[in-house]
Amino acid sequence: MPANLISLFLTILTFYTTLQITNNTILASLAGAIIGDNLGYYGTIFIRDLLINYKNLHNNQTRSYRLFLKTLRNMVIEFGPAEILDSYLIRPLALYLCPLIIGQQIIGLIIGKYLADIIFYLPTITAYELRKKYLS
Questions:
Q1: Is the pTM of this model over 0.85?
Q2: Backbone φ, ψ for residue 12 (5° rounding)
Q3: Tally of domains within the chain
């Protein structure tokens, strides 16, 4: 939940900042999806996972380095395939179209973000379960 809330805040902030600078809704939608949403979501998850995993270590640098790489690998496996489709097609399209269809910018951005989230989680959950089964 924290990752979703942080990503929502950064999506809206990035969208409006880009819109003010460029006056281009398409660029603002892309920036909100690719920069704001991804930075908020993946940044929060990556930091959380590292903190959880580091608590289980006994201050060993070699193990810490491996843990960092394993955390990074797990994120790429779980999110990578869905993220490519999400960041470059589904989420920007949802952030662009939902405000137009609804007629209200903020509500449209929120609905677009969560609509894209639902579509994103279908392949992500599958990849997570496969990773747990074969790579844990």
A1: no
A2: -65, -45
A3: 1
Model pLDDT for residues 60-114, shown as the tens digit of each residue: 656 677 777 888 888 888 888 898 899 889 999 999 999 999 999 999 999 999 9
> How many residues are present in the chain?
136
Q: CA 31 to CA 88: how far, in whole Å?
A: 10
For 1-136, where are the alpha helices, taking DSSP H only? 2-22, 25-31, 38-55, 61-85, 91-102, 105-135
Residue pLDDT, tens place only, 43-65: 998 888 878 777 766 656 566 77
Token pair, residue 21, equals 């600078």
Residue range of the domain that includes 36: 2-135
Q: H or E element: which one contains 1? A: none
Instruction: Tell me which amino acid residue 53 is.
Output: N
Do 78 and 124 contact (CB within 8 A), yes or no? yes
- Nearest-Å Rg of the Cα atoms of the chain is 17
